[in-house]
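User: For my dataset I need records formatted as: sequence, then structure tokens, nothing else. Please produce one.
Assistant:
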Amino acid sequence: MARLADYFVVVAFSPGKRGNGDGQGQILQRFPEKDWEDNPFPQGIELFCQPSGWQLFRERNPPTFFIAVLTDINSERHYCACFTFWEAIDRSQLQNRLRKDEEEEEEEEEVAAPVQPAQLFAPKSLVLVSRLDHAEVFRNCLGLVYTIYVDGLSTSLETVIGNLLTCTIPIMGGSQPDTEDEGGARTISLGAGDRQVIQTPINDSLPISNCSVALLFRQLGITNVLCLFCAALTEHKILFLSSSYQRLTDACRALLALMFPLKYSFTYVPILPAQLLEVLSTPTPFIIGVSSAFQSETQELLDVIIADLDGGTVTVPECIHISLLPEPLLHRTREALSMVLDPGLEIADLAFPPSTISASSLKMQDKEIRAVFLRLFAHLLQGYRWCLHIIRIHPEPVIRFHKAAFLGQRGLVEDDFLPKVLEGMAFAGFVTERGPPYRETDVFDELVANEAQRMQADEGSKVRVLQHIKELAEQLYKNENPYPAVTMHKVQRPTEGSHLRLHQRPFPRLDEGTIQWIVDQATAKLQTAPPVVRAERKCMVPSGPPLGTLMERNGLVLANSARRLEVVRNCISYVFESKMLEAKRLLPAVLRAMKSRLARQCLTQELNLHVQQNRAVLDHLQFDFVVRMMNCCLQDCSAADEHGVAAALLPLVTAFCRKLSPGITQFAYSCVQEHLVWTNLQFWEAMFYGDVQNHIRALYLEGTEENHLAQAGEEGSQEDGSILEIAALQCRLWPTMSPEKQRELIQKEESTVFSQAIHYANRMSYLLLPLDTSKNRLPRSSGLGDAESVSNSFITNSIAGSVADSYDTESGFEDAETSDVANYVVRFINRFVDKVCTESGVTNEHLKGLHVMIPDIVQMHIETLDAVHRESKRLPPIQKPKLLRPSLLMGEESVMDGLRVFLMPDGREEGAGGSVGGPPLLPAEGAVFLTTYRIVFKGTPVDPLVGEQVVVRSFPVASLTKEEKITAQAPVDQFIPEGCAQLQLRSCTFQLLRIAFDEEVASESVEIFRKHLQKLRYPQHIADTFAFTVGQSIKPALQPKAKEKNPSLRTISKNLVKNAKRTIGRQYITRKKYTPPPWEHRGGSQQPFPEDNEDEISVSEEVDRSTLTPATLTIRPSDKMTMSNLVERACCRDYQRLGLGTLSNSLTRSKNEPFRISTVNRMYAICRSYPGLLIVPQTIQDNTIQRISRCYRQNRFPVVCWRNSRTKAALLRSGGLHGKGVAGLFKSPNTPAPGPSQADSTSLEQEKYLQAVINSMPHYVDVGGGRNTLSGFTSAHMSSSDSSEKRQPKLGSLMKQVMGGKDPEGPGPVSRGGKWGSIRASGRTSSYALNMEVGSRLAGKELLGAPPNGSPSEASFLRQHRASLYIIGDKSQLRGVKPDPLQHWEVVPIEVFEARQVKTSFKKLMKACVPGNPSAEPSVAYLRSLEESEWLTQIHKILQISVLVVELLDTGSSVLVSLEDGWDITTQVVSLVQLLSDPYYRTLEGFRLLVEKEWLSFGHRFSHRGAQTLAGQGGGFTPIFLQFLDCVHQIHLQFPMEFEFSQYYLKFLSYHSVSNRFRTFLLDCDYERLELGLLYEEKGEGKGPQPFRSVWEYVERLNKKTPAFFNYMYAPEDSEVLRPYSNLSNLKVWDYYTQETLSEGPSYDWELAQGRPEPVEDPGPPDAGAPAPSRRRIVWPCYDNRRRVEPDAISRLLEELQNLEMELGQVPGRWKETWDKLKAFQRAEAQEDGGGGKGVSSALLMASSGLSHQRRSLGAYLQESGVGSSAINLSLDGDASSTSTPSSGKPGGRRSNTSTLYSQFQPAESENRSYEGILYKKGAFMKPWKPRWFVLDKTKHQLRYYDSRLDTECKGVIDLAEVESITPGTPTMGAPKMVDEKAFFDVKTTKRVYNFCAQDVLLAQQWIDRIQGCLSDA
């Protein structure tokens, strides 16, 4: 029985000091006045009566009632029912009291109270304090007291209150057989004629909620309440806000009710008073309610979830993450809640909804919601009893919960929610309360035990789920209202409006004596009454089905698990049968299978079978295999060991052993220590408790079952079930046992625990002490130990995950490095022993004994280990693979010898097998070598099934872009030890080395390797790079002095002449003169200068003399050698070839030459980054040049670099303009200048300079001084452009796209913007740049169709109206510039990307092509990364600008490219323009000249952009030159017949531009090369073999030996200008970025690549008895060098020819001579057979007869014949892509099908023309019918057509392979009039329908038959 109420309190208002209406509560009276012994009076009640503060009111409010909850120090909750009413208080009386207070405090000032009405009202509260929660009863009782007072009833208040305090009720229903009670209903009366029925719950463990849960859902909604529910369970702070106190209490009560069966154990204050608001900043979790009046004060709470009950919102701060229920539980719970709360939802869409919906009452709905949550907990905690460890039964059960096993069996280890709940305090309380096996049960226990299967079966059916919810709700309702029939209350209520009475007397003072007497009487009566015996309801708690039978296994078991388990079993049986070869073959598969949990469990079970009497002695190889499998098995286990694999292995690691020598045995545990699980205290506790439980169970089992002692660590379901049953039985028998028996059992249990503690102290020392304890190193505190320190196994140490992080408090090792290992192990074991022994109730004496014993155990084990370690070192080490040494280049020296490493797979799939198939070449085991030139890995694949392949991966040290230490991702392969140091080295040659160092490599060696690498990558000075140091044992005589980073120009030039003379003079004398190879079109002759050279060089007066050469006006003899060498440079040779001027030796220059070679920069004084000789207009004096150069960035003033031989238009280059230069250049001449200044004169000279360039063009005429520019032409001619012009591509349109403008002509056929792409403009372009139209091309013939992709179709000639000079400038520099109408130049502002954008783009490109880590979808990830890199977008922009410049030059306008500093994009554009315009540069010799001239002489900053030295390290790698080569590669792909060099040549240059093997691409300009003495030493003069210094020299030598750089398809046209497509869809990713050759490394160091013998035969020797070996060969895409393994047919023939010559004893001829002879012979034969080119030419390399811009492609069909010789079948397919409608979707109409691959060797026409004749053909949409000459070709299987019979140029092709049907046709509009209808027929292909018409019906039928015949033949 329990008291209904403990205390009755009257609390009144007491005025505060300030007199402003705020006061405080004061307890007037409390009953009883003495505290109850079992329940002291709670403090602070007066605060809770008025939570918002005690205040006076001007009017009387109606009485209020709410219940506050106080929690005492023992976590007992006290329910304070507060009934508040208002009493009048006189103002004068209040002021008197205040004055009295002030006088006491000696305050002199008057009370500053506000003006108040005569009467104020103060609150007074009647409070009932109880430990029971009966809200309605309390409301009625306090209401009765108030009614008696306010209505003046005759009943005595003292009697009522006395009766109230002495009323007792049962705690649980039906517990007291009393005549007054009806079961669980107790009727009470307080003696005022009242009657109340109190229903006590049947089971007090279930919470009482009334309607509060339903109300909470109505206020906040399903999602919000679920969010709060999860937050409460995961221990977040929750704050409720409402203006109603009762609502706050209800909401808090509802949240607690939802959490059942867990109990909330943190701060719980449903109504928090204003004075205690600082409680909200407590660090612990809480559930608190606060009046919404204080909402503003809750705003700054950053970690509190706020639920506003009135507004229906829940606010979760950003910093808080609430873990929600795991799916599918969350979805199911939401669904069930919506069924309960909104029953109409299901039938809302029905056409005939039922007339009535049975909606539950609010109280019933409340119970239904709780039923949903009860089911949810039953789901969450299903099978929890199977994870309980009972470690003591007597005297009290001690129970622990195995969280890891529970989560593992549920498959929720990675879940966010459940682990947090299990770690929480509420769950700990749950285990304590519900763990005992013998106790009272409730609805939750029954639900978990008996309804689990039903709930699983119901999941699919909503009806059944709802049915179950309603059943549970009935039980919950019945528990709260056991007897609903008798809930009749009879309680008086006050009369209406009684609280408004004017003259209401105050609440009377109660008589303490009377009440105390009543209370004393009742207490005495209770003491004499017999004690209430409560009926015992305890029983054994049912466990329910075990977890295994409930869990859905999908997703956990792999489909082929049965096969895997079979492999594991077979491998283990092979090991124990000593069939080591079979075991070795299966081992990789077993190690891979260990990813599966089932395989790991299978391994432990299989190994267990081979242990006899706890011991299994193995030989060395068996031991290695077993240890390896154990390590692999443990490596995938987490530290928590949720699947019990480590637990099952623990007894095995102490069982398997090997004999090292007599008396010394090594156990497996010494080799499996490197796993996190052994340092996890929770793992050891769970293991210990599991073992103790098994031993306790064995203790109580009787008779025969004793010999079934459970094996330590195993927890079968049978054992678990029986231990719970045994414990329940023992708990039931305990009270009946004698004290002696009880003591005996306690002592036995305690001894069992103690003996297990000793056992575990031993076990832990086994697994925590490292084998080599002398190193003072814990097994897991750093990487892995030395190779020999553990065993002689392959895995000398374990393969476990290393613990790189320091040990946290959980692991027990605090700072392992500072003291010896033994101490830490002792401390760790002591911590463990203290914890488990205290929890298991081990006596203090035993515990002290353990503490004494542990250091001895550890010491003893250390001594044993020392012996084992000593012996294990004597074992012969396992043979690791022999290190393969890489071959080195001449002069390359080794810096660090091979460090044994594993080459790990990266994100490229090919090498690792992956989804693309192929052998797993990676990971590979070998060594990494560091040489002065390269980093090389050489080794063999780890997987023994791959075979004896050699894997090589290398790159030049100079190309390293990033070196970083990486941590192991998921373990890559079981062959690789985990925890070793790992490095990732990335190179800009698109190579990546991910290496894991072997355990034998000390960490110091790794650091030394990294330091050497850094030093080699970033040398102090350029002279320390490999290109200089190669082959030098001592430093060169001429050693450069260390200079400051940026010496001023002045300082340098002071020493320059002296330096240059000395350096050049010496080299000139000692070295042979470098003579460039001759070429055909050389313009002018190269003459040495005579002594009497009097060339005049004017020097500016304004320039400081010291910055120039000594001011002589003639070239002095000492400068002549300088000049002579300058003339030899590439620039000068090219100027002479182009006829751009010569150095004349007389004073009178020939005035008819428009340009001259100026020597003004011969000492690099004007512009350091320009070459010594420059082309400038004839009329410009040298002193002018000096002034002009200041206007340009880096002094790079405009110079001519190329001239169009046909139009004489010049291409100029310069740096961008400085700000002042721009302003001056475009200043309007009318604007008055503020005064004569130098800037003005410079601007004037600039204008003169540009005018001189314009004047130098031969056809320049000034037409009446008018403006002959694009914009002028546009305004006049825009409207008159006729349709024929519109169809032709326009230069203006092209220019608009480059400048980023929109085409103004709309989406009609004119708009070509979509074809060319666009360079997006951010700002508005100048008005003149838009709407430009240059005019139609002067095309002589009709165009059939516009070419695709926006390639210009005809050579474009502008009309007269055009600018003579276009300046391509950067939009950002030229912003706001106005065009000058009087000038003859025009500025084209374009947007270009900066160097840093190229750098960023390149980084992303590298990561896309060579990703560091594997991704789930490699192809998708690759394409996404490629797009994000924007590399192809940049290529597109460069090509677009280049094609624009080519167009302008081709139309006769000169172009000045003036972008950035003039050495990055400018160089790219001018180089590409020359390459596209001049066929000479497309030869090997010409391309070399182009690169030497534009890139080397004109000062592209190779050192700076390639970060070649320490100074440039911060700048990073910016591959401007590589980007240029990529552009050339794109053009090469589109025009394969126009280039003499092959794609390999471009890759070769790309590689060696960053490799630093040659000196060619070092330094930033000629001036720097001159300083170092490199400029004129291209040829080495030494005798004997010397390393090459120039890449060109190397290429030249190599080209003589092999056609590697030659393009066999080379068949140039004399004056072809190339106009490539630049759309992104036409660009291809260069295979240089993605290809690799693992067999030999990069193939660009020819000597190294040729090191291996040519694999002519198959590598494997054929069997003796076998027939002739197959000619089939497997070529692995990432392994073999395909070009060498399977060379093309021409290379093979040339090779065979060479071999034959050698066999005949002849000196092998040069391949080039053979090739040239063959070409000459073919040409001659073509002229004879071809009949002057009529018909299809049979020439192998024919001269094209098409238009100059025609695009040609070559198809080669190479067929290997049976006898070993190769027949070559070549065809040159001259598709005129610009004039034919391409029939395939590929760019330019080039076809990849068989039609192009046929033999053209038979010259007879009949072979190729099966049938021919005239047919009318209907053109494409809206085009007329036209007669065409059709040829049906059976050989090519196609129908071709020509304009006429004599026409050799095919106009279109219909591939017969695509023909679907031939049907009779009908004449359409425009068809020939005089022809029979039956002569029409249609040919339907997969792409379109062709309409034909023959001259008569007969011919039509013949054509149809012939075509049909062709189709049937095929």
